[in-house]
């Protein structure tokens, strides 16, 4: 490993496994399983029942707490019921099971908007009704960001994709540059920002050429290349790099809104009346026979997608490999491939389990030195083990970004990040009680 200064590191990206593989569309899945979960919320109103026929794009459920998030069928076919299964975030949730009839009969819905004529509230409502959630991994409902009363100067599009192995955002940006630009323009109008920035890693010459060509006549959209270091895709790091600004809790405090590049593409497609019910996925890792990129219906199972793209290597299965939903740094390890992709999934990585054994802490302070949030990671780990909420608050555990750097650089192979993430959740949970 090569360190590049406090809070950032040069990681071996392993992106060569998939960066030359344009996404393949795969839609011949017999079943899809639409998770009734958004972030950690499972409070959904279901609008269909067993044996109902549904069309692709039909509204079948919606989140009914303080946030509204609609769930649409990604295929046409017959509802076979609701099944409880493991979700991508290691929590069990109900899933609507639909048998695909492979006709892909669409529900007729006009989601088009005119950029010139649409008012900000029209754009925000359109994003809300389309169910667009942050594709950076959180699944946070996108429309919420635009309901703030803050003054905004910039919309920043995050196309950095700094996690190892993942390349799907890179390919989608190349394939849908016009929709990305359109989505950015809609977001700028929605929040009143006069300027936009699209940021991605340096060295992407084809993408840079496409972006410059698409924005050559647009004065208020800037293209920025940023260093290929981790975690440059974290919005605090990216904002510091692009604007040399810092903030306390939210980018809105300094007049910024940040959205993932794929989120912008989805907004552009929706308002161009081309809303899709698919998700782009990178399937990568040395334990797969054919690492690749795919476009699949939302709700397809990991096991089915892996099987259709070449399967596991001969000596590997879901039970003896390290199966990660997302990237290896910030993703979630799952114990089975019987998991469905949701609308904001972007990757699954299958790595050999190296069987690293944890050793006693050396008190070397590397985890502290390289934490991009400037946290005392080991102290947070100890406080979490003790379930000491007051100490977790004192140590600012709620500002942990779960980037995984503390575990990655630990010479004792201690899963520090697991504890800091749990500590963050414990503290945030205590504040809502």
Features:
433 residues; alpha/beta; six-stranded mixed beta sheet; 12 helices; disordered N terminus
Task: Please provide a written account of the structure.
The protein contains 12 helices and 19 strands. Helix 1 crosses helix 3, helix 3 packs across helix 6 and helix 9 packs across helix 12. The radius of gyration is 21 Å and the shape is globular. The chain has 433 residues and is α/β, with parallel strands linked by helices. The strands form 5 sheets. A 6-stranded mixed beta sheet has the order 3-16-15-19-17-18, with helices on both faces.
Short description:
The protein has helices at 120-129, 168-175, 177-191, 205-215, 235-243, 261-271, 302-308, 366-369, 377-385, 389-394, 405-408, 416-432, and strands at residues 2-3, 9-10, 24-25, 31-35, 44-46, 53-54, 59-63, 70-72, 77-86, 92-100, 154-158, 195-201, 221-226, 256-260, 278-284, 292-297, 321-325, 332-334, 347-352.
Radius of gyration: 21 Å
Distance between the termini: 42 Å
Number of extended strands: 19
| Major β-sheet profile | 6 strands, mixed
Proportion in β-strands: 15-25%
Strand order of the largest sheet: 3-16-15-19-17-18
Question: What's the mean pLDDT score?
Answer: 91
Q: Tell me the structural class.
A: alpha/beta
Q: Helical stretch count?
A: 12
**Percent of residues in helical segments?**
25-40%
């Amino acid at each position: 490993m090569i360190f590049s200064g406090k809070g950032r590191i040069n990681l071996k990206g392993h992106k060569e496994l998939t960066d030359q593989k344009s996404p393949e569309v795969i839609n011949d899945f017999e079943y899809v399983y639409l998770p009734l979960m958004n972030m950690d919320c499972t409070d959904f109103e279901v609008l269909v029942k067993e044996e109902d026929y549904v069309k692709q794009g039909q509204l079948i459920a919606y989140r009914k707490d303080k946030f509204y998030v609609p769930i649409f069928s990604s295929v046409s076919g017959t509802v076979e019921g609701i099944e409880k299964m493991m979700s991508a975030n290691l929590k069990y949730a109900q899933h609507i099971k639909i048998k695909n009839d492979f006709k892909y009969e669409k529900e007729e819905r006009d989601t088009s908007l005119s950029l010139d004529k649409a008012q900000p509230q029209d754009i925000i409502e359109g994003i809300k009704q389309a169910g667009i959630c942050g594709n950076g991994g959180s699944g946070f409902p996108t429309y919420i960001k635009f309901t703030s009363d803050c003054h905004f100067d910039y919309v920043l599009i995050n196309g950095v994709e700094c996690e190892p192995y993942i390349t799907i955002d890179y390919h989608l940006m190349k394939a849908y540059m016009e929709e990305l630009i359109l989505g950015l323009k809609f977001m700028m109008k929605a929040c009143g920002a006069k300027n936009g920035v699209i940021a991605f890693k340096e060295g992407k010459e084809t993408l840079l050429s496409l972006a410059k060509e698409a924005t050559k006549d647009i004065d208020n959209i800037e293209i920025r290349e940023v260093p290929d270091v981790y975690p440059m895709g974290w919005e605090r790091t990216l904002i510091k790099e692009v604007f040399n600004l810092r903030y306390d809790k939210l980018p809105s405090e300094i007049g910024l809104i940040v959205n993932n590049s794929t989120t912008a593409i989805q907004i552009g497609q929706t308002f161009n009346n081309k809303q899709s019910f698919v998700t782009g996925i990178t399937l990568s890792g040395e334990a797969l026979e054919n690492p690749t990129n795919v476009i699949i219906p939302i709700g397809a199972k990991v096991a089915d997608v892996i099987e259709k793209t070449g399967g596991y290597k001969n000596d590997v299965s879901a039970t003896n490999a390290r199966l990660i939903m997302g990237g290896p740094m910030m993703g979630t390890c799952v114990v089975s491939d019987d998991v469905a992709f949701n609308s904001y999934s972007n990757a699954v990585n299958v790595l050999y389990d190296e069987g690293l054994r944890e050793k006693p802490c050396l008190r070397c302070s590397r985890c502290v030195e390289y934490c991009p949030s400037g946290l005392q990671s080991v102290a947070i780990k100890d406080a979490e083990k003790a379930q000491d909420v007051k100490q977790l608050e004192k140590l600012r555990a709620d500002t942990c970004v779960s980037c995984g750097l503390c575990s990655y650089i630990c010479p004792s192979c201690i899963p520090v990040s697991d504890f800091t993430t749990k500590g963050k959740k414990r503290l945030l949970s205590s504040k809502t009680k």
